[in-house]
Specification:
about 65% helix, mainly alpha
Length: about 100
């Protein structure tokens, strides 16, 4: 079985749908910190909030409580959630037109 050094390699080879939630989040986080990989930080975030849905609409300050997250990483996560929200809104608008 192939072992990737970062989930980005797995995504490239097997596709985004093959990744776990923590692997997807680790890609956004990009790097970990001394003694903690990006995947470990991502798992800690998901453990704290329960899921992506649980993460949505959390105040950014809540993310600062997690060691290994700073402003840049939190901003990336917030931007990804905003992109997802806009996609959902667009799909819902298109669905309402039908």
């Amino acid at each position: 079985m192939q072992k990737w050094r970062h989930p980005g390699g797995k995504l490239r080879e097997l596709g985004a749908d093959s990744l776990t939630d923590s692997e997807l989040l680790a890609i956004l986080i990009s790097t970990g910190m001394k003694g903690k990989t990006a995947e470990e930080v991502a798992k800690e975030i998901l453990d704290k909030f329960g899921s992506f849905k649980g993460m949505a609409n959390q105040p950014l300050e809540k993310f600062l409580e997690i060691k290994g997250l700073g402003d840049r990483k939190i901003i990336k996560i917030a931007a990804a959630f905003e992109i997802a929200r806009r996609i959902v809104n667009q799909v819902l608008k298109e669905y309402d037109k039908e």
